[in-house]
Structures are given as structure tokens and as C-alpha cells.
Design goal:
single chain, alpha+beta, T-fold, 4-stranded antiparallel β-sheet, 22% helix, 22% strand
């Protein structure tokens, strides 16, 4: 779907396409997958999983993670992404 260029950053992706329904919450309701980029892999993974589980109902909590950007793949294969993530996409 997208190629993300990284230098001194980590990327984590959460979704159900590989392991099936293993994430509890509202996840999968609105997303095929969620990828998060930032300086720490552990934090990026936690944010990606939490965002997927949340299903995108309230994204205001993401504001406290200003060093992290996300890309969401919707069920119709369109993407929703932060401006920071858009700058990282390789064309």
C-alpha cells in the first residue's frame, strides 16, 4: 500500500490480516491496519495497537505523542495519515 522511508526511526504495524482477530476492542471495525512511526519501537507498537483497538473513535489522546506519526489503511484500501507520515512516504 505504501513505502515509508525511515532514518533513525522505528515503525510498528497492527492489524488482523496476519494473525486474525487477536486484538481486543473495537479494532477492525474501521481499519485494516495501523502503522506508527517514531523514535521508540516499543512506544510505536503500543500506539499502533491502541489505535487499532480503539477503532478511531477518539484520536485526541494521540496529541500527547507529538514525535509519532500514523498511517491507517481503511477497509476500502484508502489511507488516512498524519502530515508527518505523508512527508515520510517514498514515491
Amino acid at each position: 500500500m505504501a513505502t515509508v522511508g525511515l532514518i533513525d526511526s522505528a515503525i510498528a504495524t497492527s492489524g488482523t490480516y496476519e494473525r486474525g482477530d487477536h486484538i481486543w476492542g473495537d479494532g477492525g471495525r474501521g481499519f485494516r491496519s495501523v502503522s506508527v512511526v517514531g523514535p521508540s519501537l516499543g512506544t510505536a507498537d503500543a500506539i499502533a495497537t491502541a489505535l487499532f483497538a480503539d477503532g478511531g473513535t477518539d484520536l485526541s489522546w494521540l496529541d500527547s505523542f507529538e514525535l509519532y506519526d500514523h498511517l491507517v489503511i481503511l477497509p476500502d484500501s484508502t489511507m488516512r495519515l498524519t502530515p508527518g507520515m505523508e512527508r515520510r512516504l517514498v514515491t
